[in-house]
Amino acid sequence: MIENEQQLKRNFGFFGTLSLVIGTVIGSGIFFKQGRVLQEAGSTSMALLAWFVGGIVTLASAMSVAELGSEMPQTGGIYIYISKIFGKFWGFLAGWMQISFYGPALIASVSYFFSTLFVTFFHLPAKINFGIFSLGSVFCIAVAACILIALMNMLENRVSRVFAIMTTSIKMIPIFALIIFGLFFGHAGATSSLVNLFANQIGQGNFGVAVLSTLFAYDGWVVISNLGGEIKNAQKTLPRAVTTGIFIVLLAYMGVSFGVFKSLPAKEIIALGDQAPFHILSGAFGPIGGRLMDIGVMISVIGTLNSKILSFPRVVFEMADKGQLPFSGFFHTLGKHSKTPNYATIFEIVIAALLLNAFSSSQDLSDWLVFVSFLFYLLTFVAVFIMRHHLQRKPHFSAPLHPLFPTLAIAGTLFIEISTIVNAFTDPTGQQLFGIIVSLLIVALGVPLYYAKKIYKL
Questions:
Q1: CA-CA distance, 26 to 178, in Å (whole number)?
Q2: Most buried in the list 63, 68, 229, 342, measured by CB within 10 Å?
Q3: Which CATH number fits domain 14-81+104-360: 1.10.10.10, 2.70.150.10, 1.20.1740.10, 3.30.930.10?
Q4: What is the structure's pLDDT at 34?
């Protein structure tokens, strides 16, 4: 462990942490997944059930991580949990996965999506000229967004806390608008024949694929556990914020889906695809409604980007604290006044920028993340049983009906992993299989690094 007085500030209370949970999960998926889930499920009833099942699996996962967080309320999240339960080697690989690929790729993916929306909204040219050379507008705006949010996160973490609360509050406006319009003004939509659809179309969809789509939309909340060292009374606050946040997200996803289904016929929702929510608000409030929806989504995505850039450098910082990284003293340095891991933040942003330059779309990046990240989620959920066995008592936060929730979390994770493998081998382009192999190879690169650091004291 690095011997100095570097210590993060505990500036996140319950509402700040809750805002980060909600803001991390609710990015763009809530606005763009209804058509895909409806098409896969085969009916509005089954689509709503898919959102509910995905939410319950996610809530079970959150309950499981909350148990671990209540016993290990430290910076680092699953890196710490896996290190303490399965040993330093597996913990290192979990941390390495997050800081070398998963975290930067998520940052790159979210910033790319924000940039795409930004360029379209302001009708920017495809290329931006810099004298003798030019760069793509999407790439430039994405990198600029990463840098600006990173600079903000180099200030005291209370600034990030306030930003998280503001963006989460604003992103709820279009969500409430869709829910309220659907409930009170949507009379000729997909749910008008709800009973008939349930009776006649239950066997026509692929319910498993629909649930898988919702689970991807619910993903991302676990990174909040990385901030355990900056949360006030983390032993109690982290479990409460994570479980409450996921429950609110579940209600929001169900509400938005019901609002969309009640406002438009099923065939039109599928035909409109990603544009269905924009079409509804444009019809309700005219062109200004559509523009406000665009702004709401951009704010939603930038709030998610803030959560990612805030969270992942903390894993770099904690691994450096344990002396597990080359130049650990450098990465363990905090800002003199801000007490934030600024060098670790720069490290993550540089990798994210390289990934942005290497990939042509945010979808390419996000598709690669699923398999390897959920492998370590699986270890985390198994760790709940091991921890309870060693404790010989209930943890400080104890999920009810044990072992129901960790069992559901494990089942949901296995479903995602198996489905991803099946889809990879049936994908005619071979991109998914290629992504799985590359992501596993990146994790494998951590093995020689771990032993080189251990043997040669790099």
A1: 15
A2: 68
A3: 1.20.1740.10
A4: 81
